[in-house]
Amino acid sequence: MSATDSVVSTLQRNWDMVDAALEGLNHATIAHIPADQCNSIAWILWHMSRVVDTFVNARFRSEPQIWIADGWHQRFGMDDEPEDRGVGWTAKRVASWQPPDRSVLIGYYQAVRATANGYLSSITDAELEEMKVISPVPEPRTVANALGQMVWDAVAHGGQIAYLRGFYRGMGWHR
Prior knowledge:
Layout: H1 5-22, H2 27-31, H3 41-60, H4 66-69, H5 72-75, H6 91-96, H7 102-122, H8 125-128, E1 131-133, E2 140-142, H9 143-169
């Protein structure tokens, strides 16, 4: 049993839930903002993918994010700012954000998911215990601790996507 088996299992269950929640939703539903001060499914999916991409590639592997390296930012019509993950966006900015076509949005999510799975299947116990400064926390911490933060964020946002799916179309998020 690998040190990351529970992390991989948790993320896989989350991603399966997100996949089920997205199934059958058209672009208008995915892009819909349900109320002022709320995020659309599209924005949450983009943000969740950006967080995982940033953590896995830039923070853990010290490699370029696929957001930039693979040109996803261009397909989204956005800048190549590596720290732009939606953190700190105002409600006005979220409301004015135009999500790309459904296939681009889901394509980026799937590419990030594949990269994360590859990383998690290869990380060692020694790498998990490595102490380093991993933004946004300024103090040194273990990679395992930061990985926990990333997983928590992904699961929280996966739940939001599933909730909105249920709000719009019923419980299609659960199989």
